[in-house]
Write a structure and sequence with these properties.
2 domains; 7 helices; membrane; elongated; transmembrane
């Protein structure tokens, strides 16, 4: 029987969410770095100053923000896409059951409990990030500041989870669960661990 986490629906949603998150992080890094409104505004202000045109730092930053706006629009659009993907992910989990071991079960090892709690915490914080992002764009002005503050903090847990997730998968692939990376790409074709570790028997 194929494992739930390696079936087609789970793999498609997994990679769709992964690529969407990576794109979101790219837009964040652009906003903080190359497309920072103050940095772009200062470049514009200095260029105009050479032509004898005076521009205040505040106005220059406002123009820089307008220049950045089309790029940031993709951040918002991708956020809506992620909300849809998250709901689909929850729907798949409701239909197929959870793809990780029950952390409350006495039969679950401490290692598996840690992994299970990591996923649970991620999905709770992920939902918080999506909700606060939605409220920043669509919520009342009175809540925008607090929602934005919480949303910005989500960058740190997102990066932490990505590092832990990739590190854990790579360790599992070379350790107790060889072939897991291949399964997440191609699916579970009932490859036995010993077959992966030893390779094919050329005497067959």
């Amino acid at each position: 029987m194929r494992e739930k986490r390696f079936n087609l629906a789970s793999r498609v949603i997994h990679w769709a969410i992964a690529f969407a998150i990576m794109f979101l992080l790219l837009t964040v890094f652009l906003r903080l770095g190359w497309m920072n409104k103050d940095a772009m505004g200062e470049i514009l202000r200095q260029a105009l100053l050479k032509k004898g045109i005076q521009l205040s730092e505040t106005d220059a930053a406002a123009i820089g923000k307008e220049i950045r706006k089309p790029m940031w629009r993709y951040h918002v659009i991708t956020g809506y896409v992620l909300i849809g993907l998250y709901l689909i992910r929850m729907g798949i989990t409701f239909i197929q059951g959870i793809a990780f071991k029950n952390p409350f079960s006495k039969q679950t090892s401490p290692k598996d409990k840690f992994k299970s709690w990591l996923y649970i915490i991620f999905y709770v914080l992920f939902a918080t990030s999506l909700f606060t992002g939605f409220m920043v764009v669509n919520g009342p002005k009175e809540t925008k500041e607090i929602m934005e503050a919480i949303h910005v903090k989500s960058l740190y847990y997102m990066l932490s989870f990505i590092v832990l997730h990739i590190g854990g998968v790579l360790l599992a692939d070379i350790g107790g669960e060889p072939g897991i990376v291949s399964k997440m790409i191609r699916g579970n074709f009932n490859i036995k661990n010993e077959d992966v570790a030893q390779g094919p028997d050329h005497n067959d």
